[in-house]
Fold:
Amino acid sequence: ILYFLLFDPAASSASDPRPQLPLTYFAPGLGRLLARTDWSPSASWFTYKLSFNSVDHQSGDGNQFELYRKGEWLTKERTGYDLEYGGSQNHNTLAILNDEPDHDDPCAYRAINWRQGAQYEYVATGDPDLKALGTGTDFVYALGDALNLYNSEREGSTDVLEASRSILWLPPDHVVVYDRAASKSANRFKRFWLALPGAATVSGTRTTMTSRGGQQLFVSTLLPHDAEILVQPAVIPTNCGFDNGFAASDDPITHQLKVEARGAPLKTRFLHVLQGADGGASPDTAVLLESSAGTPYAGALVKGNAVLFPVALDTPLTTMTCSIPVPAGSVVTRVTGLTAGGRYAVTTRSVSGGHEVTIAASP
Structure:
């Protein structure tokens, strides 16, 4: 009835205003990035979030990302309420074991965050730092330092040294994610988590998930080299004799991918390539790239794109050389972590099996 009162049934159909809007939107106050390929029902979406975490009922979702394709989420946060569901293991980001908090009641939120290796809710050391953001017609890029979210000076839990992410979306179907994690103390686990809306299989370093609608998500784990890769049902254990939270109604997430650095090293790097695809499609090959000289860089080659990230967060590129195993004219090389407004000289030369690119800072 209200619809009938508001709209004249004899009026012509209104035009869709959305095509006049930008395809990318960034909310700086929340560190929230939303990007899409178009405004049609079959559009692909990419989201990223790096926000403060000091307000009641926020989650440990710093450096979270999501991918939507043809009407389905192929990965998204595991949406739920309170305590356990707010932990980073449900938000497509890293988990890094820290010092046990001073307030160590096993059923308090601080102890739950600690056991998960999650970012601290309410008592984190400070705000994260979105160091870079870039968008274009064929890419969306973000570099986020979430270190402050993992430590809590108030709780005496300050063992995490690195927790940063470089991420590049190559629309419509590929996401390349590079994570840096480090601790002061030994025997502190470091894990990459990804929420999945369906069961998945692991074969070598590739994880394959099929959605309810028959789409596929391929996840290639390129780093660490000896990673432990496991897919498990998305179940939250309750260890305190009461409900530590509950999942949102109709949330599609049913499983989780956990990638862990074996042996809990002091420092590790995670590198993943995600690809959304139709049912029956074959995955694109993802190849690890690592620099051979100069400033250390690492990245991936996938579907005509060579993507390179700095291994260390705040080390400026002076010079860097990397071999790429395809001819120079067949690939777009994307180098991140450069100085804004800086000048760089680029040279290439053919080598056996591909080409070598050298980038050097210029005066």
Notes: The CA atoms of residues 233 and 255 lie 4 Å apart. The longest strand covers residues 160-170.
